[in-house]
Write a structure and sequence with these properties.
This is TetR family transcriptional regulator. Residues 26-45 bind DNA. It holds the Pfam family TetR_N. Keywords: DNA-binding, Transcription, Transcription regulation. By secondary structure, the protein is mainly alpha-helical. It has helices spanning 5-20, 27-34, 38-45, 48-70, 76-93, 95-103, 109-127, 135-154, 164-177, 188-201, 209-223. The protein folds into 2 domains: 1-46, Orthogonal Bundle (Arc Repressor Mutant, subunit A), CATH 1.10.10.60; 56-182, Tetracycline Repressor, domain 2 (Orthogonal Bundle), CATH 1.10.357.10. Helix content is 73%, strand content 0%. Helix 5 packs antiparallel against helix 7.
Length: 224
């Protein structure tokens, strides 16, 4: 199969990233490795940020594909566990791409898709009535904890990594944001979170958009 200019540039950049890390991704080095002139790179991606987005997406494709293939079960909390394990596995097996993904604030596209998938799992926990904190905060806690674990382990020599840290951190954050059962999450904040999640999923037409916004604000206050 004949590669397009864009494919050649992305693959060249990916190889440089794996060999030399983020610092190896200069426009001159990428252009030379792909056998094109620097202006071609800018015409293809617009700017270097566009290139970084494309490289991150290229490196993240297998992860996102596996994430989609995980599917959904009847237990969204267990789905969160499986998603966490997959995320950590990717970060430790592909550290160069992971560092680009989460260490480069200008990378957007692929990370947004991954963040949306995490949020959907958290929303399903809320819809099941088992979320203890608001959806946005819960998603941020899971993301921050997972990223912290991965970056900490990446920074350590493989022989010094504490594999138990992965499970301990996962269970700690899950215990923080969820209840073990629907009955255990019968307090008022959890009910407010579940009601807001249900309304966001199916707002109906009983309330106007302004009334929906006001109700969502009230529910957020109760949840906090």
């Amino acid at each position: 199969m004949t590669l397009t200019t864009k494919d050649r540039l992305v693959r060249a950049a990916a190889e440089l990233l794996l060999e030399g890390g983020r610092d190896a991704l200069s426009t001159r080095a990428v252009s030379a490795a792909a056998g094109v002139q620097a202006p071609t790179l800018y015409r293809t991606f617009g700017d270097k940020d566009g290139l970084l987005d494309a490289v991150a997406t290229y490196g993240f494709q297998s992860y996102l594909c596996e994430k989609h293939h995980l599917g959904e079960t009847e237990d969204p909390v267990d789905d969160l566990r499986r998603g966490w394990d997959l995320h950590v596995e990717f970060g430790l097996s592909q550290p160069a791409f992971y560092m680009l993904m989460y260490g480069e604030p200008r990378v957007r596209e692929a990370r947004q898709e991954a963040d949306a998938m995490l949020r959907r799992i958290v929303e399903r926990i809320a819809e099941a009535g088992r979320l203890r904190v608001p959806v946005e905060r819960a998603a941020q806690l899971v993301h921050a904890t997972g990223m912290g674990v991965i970056l900490s382990l990446i920074a350590s020599p493989p022989e010094e990594r504490d594999a138990d840290l992965i499970t301990a951190a996962r269970e700690h954050v899950i215990a923080t944001i969820t209840a073990e059962s629907l009955e255990a999450a019968s307090d008022i904040p959890s009910r407010a979170i579940a009601l807001k999640a249900a309304l966001e999923k199916d707002p109906g037409d009983a309330l106007t958009p302004a009334e929906h916004a006001m109700l969502a604000e009230w529910l957020d206050r109760v949840a906090r």
